[in-house]
Each structure stands twice: as structure tokens, then as C-alpha cells.
Amino acid sequence: MVSLNTPLCDFGWKAIDFNLQGVDDTFWTLEKSKGENGLLVMFICNHCPYVKAILPRLVHDLRILKGLGIETIAIQSNDPLNYPEDSFENMKSIAYQSHFSFPYVIDETQETARAYNAICTPDFFGFNRNLELQYRGRFDATGRGVPPPDNTHDLFEAMKLIAETQKGPTEQKSSIGCSIKWRE
Fold first, then answer.
1. Domain Thioredoxin: where (predicted)?
2. pLDDT digits over 116-143, tens only?
3. Which phi and psi angles does 179 have, rounded to 5°?
4. Could you say which of 93, 121, 157, 160 would form a disulfide bridge with 48 (CB–CB 3.0 to 4.6 Å)?
């Protein structure tokens, strides 16, 4: 497993459209995914220990953000042939077991991950209502362990700020996670 850090936010970068199949068998586009106050595009997968460490808290926070007009879409771009835990069938199971309140879609061609310059799982892209990037940072200080006593809620606070002001925080800490598993 290779751990990577994401680049910092390129404020104002415009979200790129996609058309990806969800575990609900719906095809999701950028327009269909966005919320009244913004959109969180996140690249996750099933097997990554960084994602597993935050998943219950992430699902909880995203439910609250939905109430603030921030919608979310989770994109799985890893190669499921070499990483079978990331298969479409397993994506369905994870979404059901974890009570996802957001679409979980597969990026079979990996074109969306490349268009977004996704680096790792998790990789978070927080957009305002105009689909301008305002956050590209970490979920919190957990990494792949247990949250520290002084844990911050970086993603939640950033997306809440975007919902309220349409601007992200000027100071952001990059996300860390497992590298995207590219097809050869």
C-alpha cells in the first residue's frame, strides 16, 4: 500500500462533468448530483484502511451536510480486477451496510479520476453552488487510526462554511490515503 497526500486546493477550479453508474443502478451526472449550496465529490473505495477508519463518522457528517444543502457523490475508481474488494457488487454491500445517503458510483474507465486529478482514497473536492472548488483537504486528523482527543472536523467545518458563505477556508490540510489503483 502506498500512502499519498493530495495537493492543496486550487480555488475556483470548475467541477468536471461525469456520467457514472451508481449502486442504485442510476446514472449520476454533475448536474444531477449537486445541492442547493454545493457538492462534495469524494473518491473512496472499499478496501482502503484510511476510508474504513473514517467511514461511520463520514456517513454521519454527510447526513448533516445534506440538511445544509450540500450534496455528496462518492466515486470508486480503483481497478476491481486487481482489487476485488472494490468490485461493483461489494460497493453495493458497503453502501447498504453503511446506510449511504448519497450516490456511490463506479468510474470503470478511470476517466473521472484522471479528470479530477484524484490522487488517493479518500480524496475530497468541495465545491460551492457554482461548482467552483473551495476545499481539497482531509476529513480530520485521524489518518487510518483512532481519532486523537483533540480531533478536528476539517471536512465538515469546511463544507459547512461553503454552505453558509460559498467560500472555503483559506487554510487547509491535505488528505492522506492509499493511492488510486490504476489499470495497467
1. 9-161
2. 999 999 999 999 999 999 999 999 988 8
3. -60, 150
4. 121
Domains and CATH numbers, the chain: 3-179 (3.40.30.10)
Containing H/E element for 21? strand 19-22
- CA-based max dimension of the chain: 42
pLDDT for the residue numbered 1: 53
Radius of gyration for the alpha carbons in the chain, expressed in angstroms and rounded = 15
Check pLDDT > 90 for residue 163. Answer: yes
Packed helices 154-165 and 49-67: angle between N→C axes, nearest 10 degrees: 30
- Mean pLDDT computed over 107-119: 97
Return d(Cα 63, Cα 101) in angstroms, integer.
Answer: 7
Average pLDDT for 147-156: 91
Give the percent of the chain with pLDDT over 70: 98
Can you tell me the distance from the alpha carbon of 13 to that of 167, in angstroms, rounded to the nearest whole number? 13
DSSP codes of every residue in 111-161: HHHHHHT--EESEEEEEETT-BEEE---S-S-TTSPPPTT---HHHHHHHH
**Contact predicate 159/65, CB 8 Å:** yes
pTM, 2 dp? 0.95
Cβ atoms < 10 Å from Cβ of 129: 16
